[in-house]
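Inverse folding, one chain.
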């Protein structure tokens, strides 16, 4: 990892002025744990409830509204209601929706049995108290135990299939080409010939999904809409600004590189609404692109700039990297073997 000068200076200054190195390490590990749980909860809730996932975390709205007053202090998490929950409230959601998390966490009795220790660690971090000598090892053990489930969560997201055509407005509209925007941009080859934009539509299922059918609605199903640009590049912040009308339906905007983005939608939302939202993303991709080829490899700074746009914009992380072929792998780098063989789910 390359630190910017201000970050490096602050860490060095803290070290010189008595900030315990163990406390910095502990905070880093807790950041990994809690941010991963938020990401997982977001994906699974939206896969089950669609736009209704916000109602499940409505208790966060008070803090979120208060934070909005300080617009100059907004960050990518400012619009993420999960970022306003205390850790204990996050656990309450997981417990209430356990069927969604059983495939991707550890055995429930073990999970719940560790929470008292984890809450104490979180409390010490929040109150800037010195760490217990075992705190770091406790969190790292939890991260090691979560490796398998985190792999399943991300690999299932990237286990794509082409859905049968004609079962719903999405496949009818975009694979059969009957949506008005599909007729305008795909059937006429306008997008390909003028803008060199390739369009692809696939689906995936969450590990807890019981239905194998593509229905309307289809909780547990995710739609993945991919755009690959030939001689054009995308400005991701500009693209996000052009999506104001449909952001509430977007699970993720996966920014792979300046010439490839994928939008993820929930099958729990009305298929007709998702189909129309896909049309909005297509026009937004065209408006936000410019004739140019990417210059050199994509670096960490580019990925970070994308992630800084919004919590739903993911780039260079679990959701766009991990699949069944990426083994052996460790997702948390917390010691142990990680995942050496793709697990069965």
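Residues assigned per position:
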């Amino acid at each position: 990892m390359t630190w910017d000068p201000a970050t490096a200076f602050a860490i060095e200054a803290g070290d010189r002025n008595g900030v315990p190195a163990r406390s910095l390490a502990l905070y880093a590990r807790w950041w990994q744990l809690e941010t991963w749980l938020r990401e997982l909860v977001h994906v699974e809730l939206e896969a089950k409830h669609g736009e209704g996932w916000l109602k499940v975390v409505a208790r966060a709205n008070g803090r979120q509204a208060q934070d909005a007053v300080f617009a100059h202090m907004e960050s990518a998490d400012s619009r993420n209601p999960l970022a306003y929950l205390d850790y204990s409230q996050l656990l309450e959601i997981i417990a209430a929706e356990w069927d969604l998390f059983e495939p991707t966490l550890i055995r429930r009795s073990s999970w719940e049995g560790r929470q008292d220790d984890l809450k104490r660690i979180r409390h010490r971090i929040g109150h800037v108290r010195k760490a217990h000598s075992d705190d770091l090892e406790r969190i790292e053990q939890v991260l090691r135990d979560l490796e398998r489930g985190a792999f399943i969560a991300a690999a299932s997201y990237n286990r794509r299939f082409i859905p049968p055509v004609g079962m719903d407005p999405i496949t009818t509209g975009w694979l059969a080409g009957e949506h008005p925007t599909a007729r305008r941009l795909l059937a006429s080859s306008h997008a390909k010939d003028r803008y060199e934009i390739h369009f692809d539509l696939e689906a995936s299922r969450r590990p807890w999904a019981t239905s194998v059918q593509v229905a309307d609605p289809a909780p547990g199903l995710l739609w993945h809409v991919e755009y690959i640009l030939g001689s054009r590049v995308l400005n991701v912040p500009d693209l996000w600004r052009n999506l104001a009308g449909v952001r509430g339906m977007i699970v993720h905007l996966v920014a792979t590189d300046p010439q490839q983005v994928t939008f993820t939608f929930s099958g729990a939302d009305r298929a007709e609404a998702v189909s129309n939202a896909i049309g909005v993303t297509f026009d937004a991709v065209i408006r936000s692109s410019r004739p140019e080829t990417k210059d050199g490899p994509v670096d960490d700074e580019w990925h970070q700039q994308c992630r800084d746009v919004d919590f739903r914009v993911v780039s260079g992380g679990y959701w766009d990297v991990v699949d069944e072929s990426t083994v052996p792998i460790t997702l948390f780098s917390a010691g142990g073997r990680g995942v050496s063989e793709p697990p069965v789910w």
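The chain has a mean pLDDT of 91. Residues 231 and 285 are 13 Å apart (CA to CA).
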